[in-house]
Amino acid sequence: MLGSSFFKAGDLVTIKSVCPYCGVGCGITMEVDDNQVIKLSGDKTHPANFGRLCSKGKTSFQAIHVSGRLEKAWLRKKKDEAKVPLEIVPAIQETAQRLKRIIHDHGPDAFAFYVSGQISLEAQYLANKLAKGFIRTRWIDSNSRLCMASAGAGYRLSLGADGPPGSYEDFDSADLFFVMGANMADCHPVLFHRMMARVKGGARLIVIDPRRTATAEKADLFLQINPGTDLALLNGLLNLFLIHETIDRDFIASSTEGWDVMPQFLSDYPVDKVAQITGLEATDILKVAEWIGESHAWVSCWTMGLNQSTHGTFHTNALCNLHLATGAICKPGSGPFSLTGQPNAMGGREMGYMGPGLPGQRSVKEAADRLFVEEKWDLPQGSLRSDSGEGAIALFESMGKGDIKGCWIIGTNPIATIPDRKKVIEALQKAELVICQDAYQETETNTYADILLPGALWAEAEGVMINSERNMTLMQKAVPPRGEAMPDWQIIALVAAEMGFREAFSYHSAEEIFEEIKLFWNPETGYDLRGASYKRLRETPLQWPCPPDDHQHRHPIRYLNDGVSQNLKNATDGGPPPAIAFPTPRGKARFLPRPYTGPAEAPDALYPFLLNTGRLPHQWHTMTKTGKIASLNALNPSPFIEIHPADARDLGIISDDHLEITSRRGRSVLPVLISDRVQRGSCFAPFHWNDVFGTDLAINEVTHDAMDPISMEPELKYCAVALSKVNPGTL
Ligand code: SF4
C-alpha cells in the first residue's frame, strides 16, 4: 500500500475514527475522496461526544495534508554531518544494525525507548515487548510520565489498580462536581460541555485553582487557592466530613481499610489552619464540605494541576480518601475521575510503557506477572528483568552521563516538554545514536536525530486508542500514509525483525497485534479485552472490561464483584460476597494519610514569583499539528506570560512589553498579558511554543524537574522565577 492510491477519485467514503488530541477521545467521522479527507464531523453515535467536537477536533484533518510531513527516512553517519534521505527499507536495516551495535558494545541498558500516549495501543505494546522482552533494557518510558504517572500511581495505591472506577455517564447523574487543578473548559472542552449541561440541570460546580480559569468562571463556588497547597485543603475537607459526620460508615466498614489511623491524622488539619495555608476563607472551605456532605452523588475531576507535582501521587490518594469516606465511588454519578491528557495515555498505562509496567496492568516487580508474560512471549523462564528505569527525568540524566548511549523516541517531542530542558539537549547531543520516529520533519527534538523514521499519522493507519474512561475506539485508515511513511507498529516490528527477533515480531496487521494483546487479561485487576475485536470495534466503540461473549458496549462501573472479568472475592466475615471488590488482597480500598507539603520550590528574594504552566484551548501540546492550522493559530496566535496588574505596575510593565523569565535553570522571554486571573505574586505561561516558533520561547527551559518519589512525575506545574522588563531595543 506504500504510496499507492487507497480510495480513488469519486469514491466518496465515510470512515470513523477518533480525535487525535486530548484524552476525552471524541469519535469523528471523515468523508474521504481521492485520498483526501475532505470533511470531518463529530460521530453522533460515539459515547464520548455524541457528535460534539471542539475547535481542535473539528480541524484535526487539516494537519494531515499540510507540508512539512516526514515522508521518507533521513540518516547521518556522524554527528557533524548533515542527514541525507534513504529509502525506508535500507533505513530500517541500518537502524537495526546501529541499535544492535550499541547493545553489543555496551549492554542492553545502554539503549532507551521514549514513547508516547499519542501512538496506538498496538505500537505501545510492541515497543514494550521489544524493550523488555527482547532487548532486555530496563529503560522504557513515555511522555505520560509528564502528565498521568501520578494519577496512575495514586489509583494503584488507593484502589489497587490504575484507571478510573467510573465513566462519563457519571457526569449525567452527579449532583456535584469538584474540579481541582483542571481547566476543563480549555483542555477537555467536550467533557466540560457535558458537565455544564448537568450543572444547568441543577448540579453544583466547585472549582479549586490558583488561577481564575475559564472553568472557574462557571463555578458556583470558586476557591482561588495558594499554588501547591491542595493537600492541606483535601485533608481539611476530610476532617470536616468527620467532624460533621457526613461520612458513610457502612461503606468504610465494608469496602475500605486503614480508616482507623485517619481521625488522628486529620486532627492536624483544623479549618482555620487549612485556611491559613491555602489562603482561602474558612467559610468557603466549610461551604465546600457542606455541599459535598449534602450531595447524593459527586464526581471529582483533576489533571495536571495535581499530577505535575512532587507529591502528585498523594493528591490522588487524598482525593480517593474523600470518595471512600463518603462512599461516593463505584456508584452512578460518583467517583474520582482523573482526566487524561493524551488520546491514548490510558492505553499506554495498560500496556505498561512506563518504568516497570508489563501488558495488562502488570509489573516486572511481580514474579507471577513476569512468568505470565514470559509464557505469552515464548521467552525462557527468568528472561524478564525485575528492575526498571526510574522515569523520564532519570532516563535523560543517565543519557547525559553517558550511561545510555542511544535512544528511540517515538511520537513525542521531549526537548519541548521535559522540564529543565538543557539537560535533555545535552543528553541528545552526547548520545551516539538518536532515532526519532515522527510524522513531521521539523520538531525541536528531530533536530538532534541521527536517524529520522517516517511514522504514519492517525488517519493513515489502523489502531486502537483508549480514552480517559477506558473506552476503546478503532482508528480506521482513511488515507494512505505520505511518501514512505509506515504505521508506528510496523516500523517497530520491522526493526525488531532485522535485529534478529523476526519470529516474535512477524505481524501482518494491527489487528493481529490486538488479538495478542487480548491474551493479557488480568483477573486480578479486571483488565479484560477478551470480548473485544476489530470486527466489533468497526461497529462501535467498546468500554473495557470486555469479557468473552459480551454483548454490552459499555461497562461504566468497575470493580463489580461478579467474578466475570475480575476474580470473585468472598466476604471476610463469611457473609455473601460484597457487590464491589477492589483489586487488593482483601478486596478493600485503602485510606492513606498523606501529610501536606508545599511545592518543591517556593518564591524567595532571588526568584520572587511562582510560575504556573498550562495549556490553551486551541493549541495542542508542542503544536506539531495545531501550529500548522491557520484557524487555530488565529485563535491562539502567540505565547505570553500572564501577570497580575499590581505586579505589572511594580515592574513598570504595560501590555505587550516583554518580560524575561529566569529561574535557577534558565530563561525565557515572552510578551506580557496583564490579567487579574492570576494571583499577585504568581504568573502563568502556556507551554505550547518552543524553538520551532522562535528563540527564547521555551518555558521548559525554566521549569523544575524535581520528581514525585512515587510516580516519578516532575514538578512541571510550578517553579520560582524572577521577572524583569526587556528593553525593546534588545529584542
Ligand atoms: Fe478532540 Fe479533546 Fe476536543 Fe474532543 S475535546 S474534539 S478529543 S481535543
What can you tell me about this protein's structure?
The protein has about 725 residues and is an alpha/beta fold. It has 4 domains: about 15-65, N-terminal domain of TfIIb; about 75-145 and about 345-505, Rossmann fold; about 150-340, Dimethylsulfoxide Reductase, domain 2 (3-Layer(aba) Sandwich), CATH 3.40.228.10; about 610-730, Barwin-like endoglucanases. It is built from 23 helices and 28 strands. The strands form 7 sheets. Strands 5-4-18-17-16-6-7 form a 7-stranded mixed β-sheet, sandwiched between helices. A 6-stranded mixed barrel has the order 23-27-24-26-25-28. Strands 10-9-8-12-13 form a 5-stranded parallel β-sheet. Strand 19 (about 465) and strand 20 (about 470-475) form a beta hairpin. The longest helix is centred in the first third of the chain and has 19 residues, at about 90-105. The structure holds iron/sulfur cluster (SF4). Iron/sulfur cluster (SF4) binds near residues 49, 56 and 189. Iron/sulfur cluster binds near residues 19, 22, 26 and 189.
Q: Give me the count of strands.
A: 28
Count the helices. How many? 23
- Uncertain runs are 1-5
Secondary structure class reads: alpha/beta
CATH architecture of the largest domain: 3-Layer(aba) Sandwich
Q: Name the hetero compounds present.
A: iron/sulfur cluster
Index terms:
single chain, 731 residues, alpha/beta, N-terminal domain of TfIIb, Rossmann fold, Dimethylsulfoxide Reductase, domain 2, 4 domains, 6-stranded mixed barrel, 23 helices, 28 strands, disordered N terminus, binds iron/sulfur cluster
